[in-house]
Structure formats: structure tokens, C-alpha cells
Amino acid sequence: MKFLDQVKVYVRSGNGGAGAVSFRREKYIEYGGPDGGDGGKGGDVWVEAVEGLNTLIDYRYQQHFKAGTGVHGMGRNRHGANGEDVVLKVPVGTEVLDEDKQLIADLDAPGKRILLARGGNGGFGNTHFKGPINQAPRHANPGQEGEEKAIWLRLKLIADVGLVGLPNAGKSTFLAAASAAKPKIADYPFTTLAPNLGVVDLSEGERFVLADIPGLIEGASEGAGIGTRFLGHVERTAVLIHLVDATQEDVGQAWRIIRHELEAYGEGLEDKPEILALNKVDALDDEAREAKAAELAAAAGVQPRLVSGVSGEGVRELLREAYTLVRRRRGEIVGDEDGDEAEAAPAKEWRP
Questions:
Q1: What three-state secondary structure class fits 342?
Q2: Are 68 and 214 found together in one domain?
Q3: 3-state SS track over 59-99
Q4: Residue 297 is inside which H or E element, if any?
Q5: pTM for this structure?
Q6: What percentage of residues in the chain have a pLDDT greater than 70?
Q7: Based on the structure, what is the number of domains in the chain?
Q8: Residue 261 domain boundaries
Q9: Confidence at 347, pLDDT banded by 50, 70, 90
Q10: Which H or E run contains 58?
Q11: Over the stretch 81-117, which tens digit does the pLDDT of each residue have?
Q12: Residues 316-344: tens digit of each pLDDT
């Protein structure tokens, strides 16, 4: 399945049905007069977040959605049927924006839904207009027209931890080593073109979602390369794992490039907890490892973790550290002044 995280769709709610003009006068019925029924309401257009989806690819092939029209009213005070609603089902984490890309709603939880376009009301039948002066009204209301608008759907993946780094930093290999995800991996340089998600199982009851964000390049925050399109996927993460390729010449510059792009993009990415890791250390001897680690530490101001997605070295320990940070961000654990961790106290139930 192809990954699509942004799409423009056009929606139109249904028109309301017209009210009926009808009269009833039968030989053995004492009271006759107007009996035109009301028209049915036009269908609404909704958008709803559902589980089991991780792409907007369905909306590449169909961009126009129209709800049903309300049925006209009928004689004998019969109400017209309401038009059928249309529900656009999208992945959890989808943002709904207007045509100018101003945020309308954030569907960040399963089952959350919003009304995009309200159907037109049905018109009143002539029954509503009878009175002592006008006992035989010969007019009824037409149904109201529906709404028509264009909207943008933009997906931001729901993940606890995001992998960032330059192209070929080994993020896909690390994701495959950390989870059951199977991203494309090869023995030649290439860059991932779409985010990948994997569920990391540390033990029973200890799991989190890890996202491999496509490789950023210098100038990404200004639109270079894939640009800011995939930076939005790390906005929802609690922790970032910054992978730096240990086999490249200047590891310090590699770290600075990504940090600059995160800070330039904004949206709180620069303030997220970051674990710095020197990847592909299996390709270096002990002396080269120490030299590269020292160079990266001098640039970043923190000591990097040494990991290898190929051999698995240091991967488990890094994932455990990331999970601890995720739990802290969730408020599940708190740290004291000595750095020791403790389970967060459960919230007390308030009683009047």
C-alpha cells in the first residue's frame, strides 16, 4: 500500500426536499383541507478517525463526495425521507484544514468525528401555512441548499518515538532491528521516501510505537528535498532518537544539520527530549569508535550511545532508555532530585 499523507477533497452536503402542496377532501371524511408533508433533510458530510488506517491513499482516486438529497414531502402529511449521510474515514492523527490550510480540527483519537458540511433543511408543506384567514394555502417552502466546500486532509502519524537523521543514517535498519516492521533495506545507498511505523515490544505490557521519518537534508525546513512534508510526522512524538552515521567523515556536522532543521521548523521539535546515537559502529574498530564518539560529543555536548542496527549492539538498551522517557512524558513515572524514578501516583477521585 502506498503512503499518502496529504490530499485535497471536495464535499457537498445534500439539498433539502421541497414541501408538498396537497389537499384532502373525501366524501366520508369530516375535515379536509391542506395536508402537504414536509421535505426530508439533506444528508450531512462527516469525517471520522478510525483505527486500522495509516494512509490517505483512498482519497487519491476519489476526491468528490456528495451526500444524498432529501425526498420531497407528499400528501396525507407524509414527510419526505432524509438524505443519506457521507462519512469520510481517515487514519487517527489526521488534521482537517480549510482551503487556505487553516486548521479546522485535529482527529487525534479513534472515533473522533466532525461535521464538514451540514445538509439543507427540508421545506415546509402547505399544512404549516393554513390559518383562519388562509384556509387553503397553495404554496410550500422549497428545501434549503446544501453546503459545498474544499478541504485538505493532512496526516500526522501517531508515534511515541521518532527516528531522525540524514539520509543513509541507518534508520530503516534500526527500525527493522527494533520491531517487526519490514522497511526497504539494501546494501546500496538510498533514502526512504515514506514514513514507516513499527511497534517495539520490550516485555509484556511494555510497548511503544517507533516511526522512521524519511531522511532530512540541509534546507529541508525551507522546502529542500522532501522539505517540511514529513517533519510534521514527528510533531506528535514524545521522544526523538537522532541517528548519526559513524562511517561518514564529519559526524559533528551531520548532527548540526539535523538540529538546525528541527529548530528552523519549530512546532516544539527543538524542545523534545533527544537521544543521540552513533549508528553503524559495527563497521569501526575500537580506536575509530572512540574518535568518532568524542567528535560527536564535542559537537552535541552530550555523550552519544553506540549502536548498530545490523549487529543489534546497543539497540535494546537504547530502546529501554527511549521507553523510560516516553513514560516520563506521559506522566507515568516521575524522577526525584537524585535521578531515581518512581511510579506516578494515581489521580485521586474528586468527590463533592
A1: strand
A2: no
A3: HHHCCEEECCCCCCCECCCECCCCCCCEEEEEECCEEEECC
A4: helix 286-300
A5: 0.72
A6: 84
A7: 2
A8: 161-343
A9: very low
A10: helix 58-61
A11: 999 999 999 999 899 999 999 999 999 899 999 999 9
A12: 999 999 999 988 877 776 654 444 555 54
Q: Which residues contact 201 (CB under 8 A, 6 or more apart)?
A: 179, 207
Domain-embedded: residue 352: no
The residue behind cell 500526522 is 156
pLDDT for res 205? 78
DSSP, res 78: B
* Mean per-residue pLDDT over the chain, rounded: 84
Q: Provide the CATH number for the domain around residue 53.
A: 2.70.210.12
Last residue of a domain, one of 155, 177, 203: 155
Residue type, 25: R
Last residue of one domain, picked from the residues 121, 155, 189:
155
**Residue 233 pLDDT greater than 80, yes or no:** no
Residues whose CB falls within 8 Å of the CB of residue 67, separated by 6 or more in sequence, listed in order: 12, 13, 14, 42, 43, 44, 45, 83, 84, 85, 86, 117, 119, 146
Q: Which amino acid does the sequence have at 299?
A: A
Q: Angle at which helices 315-330 and 171-178 pack, to 10 degrees?
A: 80
AA identity, residue 171:
K
d(CA 114, CA 94): 12
Distance CA 260, CA 276 (A): 15
